[in-house]
Amino acid sequence: MKKSKSIIPIAYPDFSGNEKLYLNKALESSWISSKGEFIDKFENDFAKYIGTKHAVSTSNGTVSLHLALEALGIKENDEVIVPNLTFVASVNSIHYTNAIPVLVDINKENWNMDINKLIKSITTKTRAIMVVHLYGIPSDMSKIMEIAYKNNLLIIEDAAESHGAEVLINSTWKKVGAIGDAGCFSFYGNKILTTGEGGMVVTNDKKLASKMRMLRDHGQDPKRRYYHPVIGYNYRMTNLQAAIGTAQLEKINSLLSFKNKISVLYKKYLMDVPGIISPDINYEVKSVCWLYSILLDTPYPISRDELMKKLKNKGVETRPFFWPISALPPYKSDKEFPNSEYISDHGLNLPSGYNLTEKDIKYICDIIKNEIKN
Ligand SMILES: *Cc1c(COP(=O)(O)O)cnc(C)c1O
């Protein structure tokens, strides 16, 4: 995947570790489908890293969400609460179970689900809350776990954008994904860790893990070949993906510190630009930087979309924030979501790839600053 030198991409993977070595090992072993040494190794290493008893690998992050919901017994007419600002896969996975996604507005300060609005959206049909840790910023899990406990609700964490982020809960630091009943991760090419396509569900519940292993393998009874007591799926990860994942996970700390360095530099170079807003979090978290994200508002002189165009013309790839789910045709809603709409309109993701240099960051920030002078 050669990219033209003149373009600074939004994301770029790092394969400078043991990725090629392990991938070749997997190829030479002839185990290229969903059996092989790297599957078990990646699952065990990932569970250990996140701090859960079990990890179940899957073919991508979207199906990891569906697998968790299905194994937790979410079904038709159940209500599952989900933030209105997220990647569409969070909500689609709820739809796949025939449950009803109940959209909740986000908080303008930390971009995650608004706790008061979350409480108000609970009904007698609510079964679960899908918490999304957006752009690497953990949600307020202490409060959410308390609400879940009081109302007897299941918690599924969508941690697809926040590998390694932590929250302080009952005075201990815990990694996101390890707090709720199940935590789901994505290893898509632009994520913090990648296996090309891939996903993982982590949990401390042994029965849930077994159920997920069964469902991801066509519902096959693990003790009786070709006997399928339930309808399942083919949601398995391949040994090739797991080989890459094992190598990626070995260097997670250096990957995260690289991402942290990026965000420190962006902050430094954008510090004095009026109208550039960073998230403000008033609970104890250690965020990670998936894509460095800012809001643009007055007195910044041009709109988010205008700035994106200018950056594109100068070879800088950016992304607008997600659309509010309520603005997408399948999930169109008349309810008002003022904060999701505001954040969606003003939010911008800046290049955050593992090939980014300080020079690149300075170049990008100079383009952003230049608008002020004109
Ligand atoms: C990427 C992502 C997913 C889906 O992961 P895939 O591996 O692309 O299927 C789900 N939720 C969120 C919030 C994501 O960012």
Secondary-structure class: alpha/beta
Number of E-state strands: 14
What pattern of helices and strands is seen along the backbone?
HHEHEHEHEHEEEEEHHHEEEHEHEH
Outline the biggest β-sheet.
7 strands, mixed
List keywords for this structure.
Aspartate Aminotransferase, domain 1, 374 residues, globular, binds pyridoxal-5'-phosphate, four-stranded antiparallel sheet, 2 domains, Aspartate Aminotransferase, domain 2, seven-stranded mixed sheet, alpha/beta, 14 strands, 37% helix
Give a description of the structure:
By secondary structure, the protein is of the alpha/beta class. The protein has 2 domains: 19-250, Type I PLP-dependent aspartate aminotransferase-like (Major domain) (Aspartate Aminotransferase, domain 2); 252-373, Aspartate Aminotransferase, domain 1 (Alpha-Beta Complex). It has helices at residues 19-29, 37-50, 61-71, 88-96, 115-120, 141-151, 206-216, 239-250, 252-270, 304-313, 338-346, 358-373, and strands at residues 54-58, 79-83, 100-104, 126-132, 154-158, 166-169, 172-175, 182-186, 199-203, 276-277, 285-286, 292-296, 319-320, 347-350. A 7-stranded mixed beta sheet has the order 1-9-8-5-4-2-3, sandwiched between helices. Strands 10-12-14-13 form a 4-stranded antiparallel beta sheet. A hairpin with a 2-residue loop joins strand 6 and strand 7. Helix 3 packs across helix 7 (206-216). It is globular and about 70 Å long. The mean pLDDT is 96. Bound molecules: pyridoxal-5'-phosphate. Pyridoxal-5'-phosphate binds at residues 60-62, 86-87, 89-90, 132, 158, 160-161, 186, 188, 199.
